[in-house]
Write a structure and sequence with these properties.
The complex is a heterodimer of chains A (114) and B (117). Chain A is mainly β and 114 residues long. Helix content of chain A is 0%, strand content 51%. In chain A, the strands form two sheets. In chain A, strands 2, 4, 5, 9, 10 and 11 form a six-stranded mixed beta sheet that branches. In chain A, strands 1-3-8-7-6 form a five-stranded antiparallel beta sheet, with no helix packed on it. The N and C termini of chain A lie far apart (40 Å). Chain B has no helices and ten strands. In chain B, strand 6 and strand 7 form a beta hairpin. With 117 residues, chain B is an all-beta fold. Classes of the chains: A mainly beta (114), B mainly beta (117). At the A-B interface, strand 5, strand 9 and strand 10 of A face strand 4, strand 5, strand 8 and strand 9 of B.
Chain lengths: 114, 117
């Protein structure tokens, strides 16, 4: 089945630094989603991408839908302590039944040192 | 509250026992999803309900897992004869959109952490 490979697995950075993480797949996706999960909570959608090449921003977050439709990246600029959490890429598997179910990457754990 | 709620928040059980996990979706949401999150892993799709249609059970890992949704609202995920590998966080999500549009409109509950001893 389709899988999403997310990297890096974890990051430990200084407050104020920029962060970049990415997600790749061996098969194409028509939608890329980026979520953040805080401890003890469910994931919350940060950014949704629908078109190859699309670059979308949400505050200090920027995400891009790769031209090949097989990858996406998420950047966080000027990190702050509340950015701590697990970031997931996700997308609906291509060619599957039309249910809206999602495949998730393994997650990138971000820790920010004040 | 107005969000998705799940109960219990934590469940510890002995191997071989049955467990039931409950999800209360956002009022009016017709689509409901169950996912499983193992330690250090992403979420794994289990099952999808949409209105009165037959559920998509393609993600259920074995016949020990089942789920139902009564009255188009509350859903219960049942795991029979639990095994240690069933230990995980079970997350529920709901959406007001059916089908493909439900992909980017899912609101997740806080999850139930299941520990099988």
């Amino acid at each position: 089945g389709q899988q999403l490979n997310q990297s890096p697995q974890s990051m430990f950075i200084q407050e104020g630094e920029d962060v970049s993480m990415n997600c790749t797949s061996s098969s194409i996706f028509n939608t890329w989603l980026w979520y953040k999960q805080d401890p003890g909570e469910g994931p919350v959608l940060l950014i949704a991408l629908y078109k190859a090449g699309e670059l979308t921003s949400n505050g200090r977050l920027t995400a891009q839908f790769g031209i090949t439709r097989k990858d996406s990246f998420l950047n966080i600029s000027a990190s702050i302590p509340s950015d701590v959490g697990i970031y997931f890429c996700a997308g609906p598997p291509f060619g599957s039944s039309n249910t809206g179910k999602l495949i998730f990457g393994q997650g990138t754990t971000l820790q920010v040192k004040p | 509250g107005a969000g998705v709620s799940q109960s219990p928040s934590n469940k510890v059980t002995e191997k071989g026992k049955d467990v039931e996990l409950r999800c209360d979706p956002i009022s009016g949401h017709t689509a409901l999803y169950w996912y499983r999150q193992s330690l250090g892993q992403g979420l794994e799709f289990l099952i999808y309900f949409q209105g009165n249609s037959a559920p998509d059970k393609s993600g259920l890992p074995s016949d020990r897992f089942s789920a139902e949704r009564t009255g188009g609202s509350v859903s219960t995920l049942t795991i029979q004869r639990t095994q240690q590998e069933d230990s995980a966080v079970y997350l529920c999500a709901s959406s007001s959109y059916p089908g493909a549009k439900g992909a980017d409109t899912q609101y997740f509950g806080p999850g139930t952490r299941l520990t099988v001893l």
